Amino acid sequence: MTTAKRAPYLQVFKTFLRNSLVREMTFRSNFVIQCISSLSWTVMNLGFYLLIFSHADQIGPDTGWGKYEFFVFLSTTMFINTFVQAFFMPNAQEFSELIRRGNLDFALLKPIDTQFLISLSKVEWSACANFMAAGVLFIFSVWQLMARPENPLSLSWFAIVLYLFYLACGVVILYSLMISLAATSIWLGRNQSLYNFWFYITNFARYPMEIYQQGWGLPLWFLFTFIVPVLVVVNVPARLMAQPVAETSPSTTFLAVFAVVATVGSFVASRWIFTRALLSYRSASS
């Protein structure tokens, strides 16, 4: 895509951001309540894990996910989920309504990529409150790991760049899964169970993959690592940040390489599913 073609997309996205912010600020009380609600859920979730670590030193025996390592994991989960929920979830949830009401016709007529328009037209700014909370938790947890007397965490700029890169990979994987689920609305007519199914699938990504790597959890580990790769979404960036890069094992290196492959494969697959679904769409006027 040339610079001349990219510029209109950037301008359109800026318009989406501005319009969404104006809409949120029109009802400021509702915006504040949503922010408080999101932060309250985050505080309760953090309190739950603090309760767990009052009874155990690690999440799973010999996994390496101690208290502050896991809080790096938790803040990474919040970074990725907040970004997806702010930019993509509101649009995916409304996709079936666009089809039911016939408003998808207008999106198809726009001189811009339909998937781009469908995915980013609305931004939920109130979800960004959790992003700030995740930032505070992340900085505090990393500082604790770096200040501990035994085996202190040593970070490099390379590790930080890798972390940001794999955060982006995680967002792309979750977005690909979400837009694929949303696209099924064209075939099903109405898919209001999207959020429930999304929650069930992504719930597996909220915990370190080591807890699945034994007993009856092995099929889940394989399924959600190599078939529906939600386990690599958080595990890879959190693992690279919570552990020194120099001490990464061959399995971690393989997982990091696979995460890139999974990111590209997920996006290509979601693009194919979305395009195929549009080919099956019948205009409301037909």
What would your notes on this structure say?
- The structure is a single chain.
- This protein has 286 residues and is mainly α.
- It has one domain (3-279).
- Helix content is 74%, strand content 0%.
- It has helices at 3-26, 28-53, 67-87, 89-101, 104-109, 114-120, 128-147, 157-188, 194-202, 217-227, 231-242, 250-279.
- The two termini are 33 Å apart.
- The model has no long low-confidence stretch (mean pLDDT 85).
Short note summarizing the structure:
The protein has 286 residues and is mainly α. The chain has helices at 3-26, 28-53, 67-87, 89-101, 104-109, 114-120, 128-147, 157-188, 194-202, 217-227, 231-242, 250-279.
What class, by secondary structure content?
mainly alpha
Work out the oligomeric state of the chains in this entry: single chain
Secondary-structure element pattern, one letter each: HHHHHHHHHHHH
Any low-confidence stretches, pLDDT <50, length ≥5? none
End-to-end C-alpha gap: 33 Å
Number of helices: 12
Mean pLDDT: 85
The portion of residues forming beta strands comes to: under 5%
Number of structurally distinct domains: 1
* Radius of gyration (Å): 20 Å
Shape: globular
Count of DSSP strands: 0
The description of the largest β-sheet is:
none
Helix content: over 70%
